Structures are given as structure tokens and as C-alpha cells.
Amino acid sequence: MISILLATYNWPQALKLCLESLATQTDSDFEIIIADDGSTESTKQIIDTFKASHAMSITHLWQEDQGFRKTKILNQAIAASQGDYLVFLDGDCIVQPDFVERHRELAQKGYLVTGSRVLLNEKLTQDLLTWPTWDFKRFNSKLLGERLSGGINKYLPLVIKFGNGGWRDYKKFVWRRIKGCNMACWKADAQAIDGFDETMTGWGHEDADFILRLQRHHIKRKSGSWATEVLHLFHKIHDQSNAAENARRVREKILAKAM
Known about the structure:
- By secondary structure, the chain is of the alpha/beta class.
- It has helices spanning 12-22, 41-53, 70-80, 99-106, 122-129, 136-140, 143-149, 156-159, 187-192, 206-216, 243-258; strands spanning 2-8, 30-36, 58-62, 85-90, 93-95, 111-114, 117-119, 182-186, 220-223, 230-232.
- Strand 2 (30-36), helix 2 (41-53) and strand 3 (58-62) form a beta-alpha-beta unit.
- Helix 1 (12-22) runs parallel beside helix 2 and helix 10 (206-216) runs parallel beside helix 11.
């Protein structure tokens, strides 16, 4: 079984769309572990309402809001997961109906997958947030028009899908396309490296550190692009005051191995 580890923080309207998109999956053999980094009661209400109307397996993990501690709550989610394969997703992302199916197709022992995203602009995001429920067919019907008007920054990866293959493999560690909002690995591999580094607090690069350590653990990386794209809702830039320090720490680990 696949466990989707869904990170969220105080954006219940976006989380609702995300959960609704997960309810439309062509592959339904998965559970959802919501990793909540201290959201208020409104997020819990969205989750409880969704659980009452859907038969999906959903576990809500919550920790007190003491600043950006995504690494800590994700490690709790890893420990609580029942699946042997983990797909990491953020609550400000909407998934396509074949999202789980495509991730399962790419899952391979000895590998991790880093997916990609399609950025939505502010206007389209605000429009989607007014929809009574997520409707992929409705969204898809206007896809080309949204690309031409700047509503989305990519079009072809949403309509052309490629399967598995050696061309997806990365030969070495690179920062490019590491997005914590869409990546996957085997639970045993995540546990073997003790999950995320909980000393990395504040926004930024905890995902790159996680991928680096998996690759150091002899796990190969493959690209999930042109298969697993998520729709990333527009939002204001997070507080990035810790980003430079987190990036420095990752670079330090890279250099230490090279010496």
C-alpha cells in the first residue's frame, strides 16, 4: 500500500481541494497521513467534514505551532504510516486523477522519485478556491487557454505522459527539481536515514537534505516529470529567513563527502 504524507499549515480551503482531488484517484489503494504543523481549528473542521463524507483512510497528526517545523511532523507521519511506499505531498497542491497510479508505476526498489509541479497564477488560484468542489474535467477543459493567458506555466506535461525508463535516472546529486511537495521513496529507506533532519527548521531545503542523504545511502534518484505533475496553488512567499542557512548546511554535507 502507498501512504500519502500530506503536509499542511493553516490553509484549509486549499487542503479541501487537495483532499477532493485525492478522492478521484484511479488507484485507490492508499492511505492519507495529514502532517499538520500547528494549524488552527478550521483545518481540523475541514478534515473532519471530509472524513465524514468519504470512506478513505485518513489520519490527522497535529503538533503545536512553534514556527516552521515541517521536518518534525513529517517524521511523525513516516512513523505512523502503514504503507511500504511513501509519497510526499503538500496541502497547497491539487493532484491529477492518475497521480497515485503514476507514482506506483515509477516505484522501484533502490530508487526514490522527485516529481514536478505546474504553477498556477493568483487569478486562477482564487477562481479554483471558489469552486464548490474540485472538478478535474472542468479544469482540464480550459487547460490550453490557461496556458496561453498565463494561468499555468506548463501545458504539455499535463497532457503527455511517459512511463518508466532509464532516461529518468539522475547520475549524481543535483538540486534541480527537488520539490518536497511531490516526491516519493520506500518507507524502509526513509527510516534507514532516520527521516528528515529535525534540526533544520524554518522554510527551505529540508527536502534537498533528505534527498542527498537518501542518495548517500545508495538510493538512486529518478525523475517523476511528465507523469506525476501536481497543480501548485499560488500563495505569497513564505518567510525564507532560514533558507540560506539550511542551504549552507546541505552544501557543507556535499563538500564533506567530496573531500
